[in-house]
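Request: When convenient, would you put together a sequence paired with its structure tokens?
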Amino acid sequence: MASTKDNRVVVAMSGGVDSSVAALLLQRQGYDVVGVTMKLYSLDQADLPDYYRGCCTVDDVEDARTVCRRLGIPHYVLNVQREFQDHVIDYFCREYQQGRTPHPCIACNDKIKFNFLSTRASILDARYVATGHYARIEEGEAGFVLKKGLDTSKDQSYVLFGMGQEELGRTLMPVGGHSKEDIRQMALEAEFPNAEKPDSQDICFIPFGDYKAFLEERITTTSGDMVDQEGRVLGQHKGIEFFTVGQRRGLGIAGGEPMYVTKVEPDTNRVVVGPESALYRDTFSVSRVNYVGGQTPAGSIPVNVKIRYKFEESPAVLHPQPEGALVRFERPQRAITPGQAAVFYQDDTVLGGGFIV
């Protein structure tokens, strides 16, 4: 395969093993591969805990550079800290202020990896962008299809539901057809320095895992009432930003039956609590819905729905609506949380998804 624009691919390389092997696989397939590491935010490496498994450290950049050197391909570092701040970190803070629980990886994929990076790829005369996601893109008669990764324990299709036909047509995900075990073995055989590097944590920009401390440094909170299901005041809270549906710990309510957060009300600045039985619902609304195939279903259809990243999907009926969709589960589900994504599947195919209202 000749080195032309039609076969040039920019691989988003975090310094982890998955994106490194993605570059390896694409090179073996004859693509003209360019490695790009995006500097998303700044971390003081000296202050990081030993267990930190994020990205954007000097070591991560060096791992990506070393892999590219071994493969004999170019490597660039792009500073996208301003874009990441605007579209991911600020979004993360705003969602909590509005009583919702965000999933920042979805925003990062949508705004950074499949938007900003695609724009930069065109500057490098590349037709494709590639990532190390465990998901598969296939082309059928009706267009491109997004499917789960073959390794179901590592499947990442949940965070990719926002992709459309244009993004799928210019994106490659070569590791999605392999198991994690196979990926590590390929990295070992290629003598990559990161072959046995642990996987990164979910919220990469919160190195100590304390999202409440992270928020306290960046936003102003307002105290308010903590109430029961009937609206009776049980106590005070320091800010709705520190609570999420299903939460039990840190409520400051002593004695009696265990209580859980059942609702967060930004308009009244109240946190509503109740027994675990109050967490179960079978119907909810979804906004900002995206259908991967580009077409809204003509009517109600049976689907399997996943309402959190680490969550078993469950049978439901999807009712498309002019301003989103309504989902009705066959069986009530626990802690359906506003701000999280609800992703619709048919077998191993992603039909689409949106954000829980």
Remarks:
- The mean pLDDT is 92.
